[in-house]
Amino acid sequence: MLNGKTVMITGGTGSFGKQCCRDILTRFDPQKVIVFSRDELKQSEMAADPVFSTEKIRFFLGDVRDEPQLKRAMVRVNYVIHRAALKQVPAAEYNPHEFINTNINGAMNVVDAADISS
Ligand SMILES: NC(=O)c1ccc[n+]([C@@H]2O[C@H](COP(=O)([O-])OP(=O)(O)OC[C@H]3O[C@@H](n4cnc5c(N)ncnc54)[C@H](OP(=O)(O)O)[C@@H]3O)[C@@H](O)[C@H]2O)c1
């Protein structure tokens, strides 16, 4: 179902997102895979991995807290896989607002930017 399609993976540099990218590239023939995340270092390290050295991958710097940026990234995207998250429980206990902003409000921004009603 992903052949010829453009897929965007939020949190594409994370452990889940990277594996997801690898699977899509090996099992399908997508038009493009967009990795959406905040940290340029993680993106450049991923880009340097031979597994991901393909013209089909695009690295988009962005934050799921920023809905306009999500909308720009999603132009002509067919599928979005949402894996951007903060997940360290001790950090969540000390920084609950950060986790709410990314994991809850960010997830809602992804849904709204994807405009799933259309
Ligand atoms: N790993 C697994 O086996 C597994 C299994 C089941 C479910 N999950 C779930 O999948 C999600 C991701 O897990 P993971 O293990 O891949 O975590 P991870 O390795 O920590 O990766 C998190 C990803 O999210 C990105 N990210 C964090 N905050 C962001 C923001 N505000 N905007 C955009 N990107 C952001 C990170 O990149 P930047 O920091 O550069 O932004 C990174 O790419 C979690 O909800 C986890 O519970 C994971």
Computed CA radius of gyration, to the nearest angstrom: 14 Å
CATH architecture: 3-Layer(aba) Sandwich
CATH topology category name: Rossmann fold
Bound molecules: NADP nicotinamide-adenine-dinucleotide phosphate
Category from helices, strands and their pairing: alpha/beta
Q: How much of the residues is beta strand, in percent?
A: 15-25%
Shape: globular
Quick one: CATH class?
Alpha Beta
Helix content bin? 40-55%
CA(first)-CA(last) distance:
19 Å
Topology diagram in text:
Layout: E1 6-10, H1 15-27, E2 32-37, H2 40-48, E3 57-61, H3 67-73, E4 79-82, H4 89-94, H5 96-114
Parallel strand pairs: 1-2, 1-4, 2-3
Helix pairs in contact: 3-5
The structure holds NADP nicotinamide-adenine-dinucleotide phosphate.
The site of NADP nicotinamide-adenine-dinucleotide phosphate has 21 residues, from helix 1 and helix 5.
What does this entry look like structurally?
This protein is an alpha/beta fold. The chain has a single domain, classed as NAD(P)-binding Rossmann-like Domain (Rossmann fold, 3-Layer(aba) Sandwich). 46% of the residues lie in helices and 17% in strands. It contains five helices and four strands; from the N terminus they run E-H-E-H-E-H-E-H-H. Strands 3-2-1-4 form a four-stranded parallel β-sheet, sandwiched between helices. Strand 1, helix 1 and strand 2 form a beta-alpha-beta unit. The radius of gyration is 14 Å and the shape is globular. The mean pLDDT is 96. NADP nicotinamide-adenine-dinucleotide phosphate (NAP) binds next to helix 1 and helix 5.
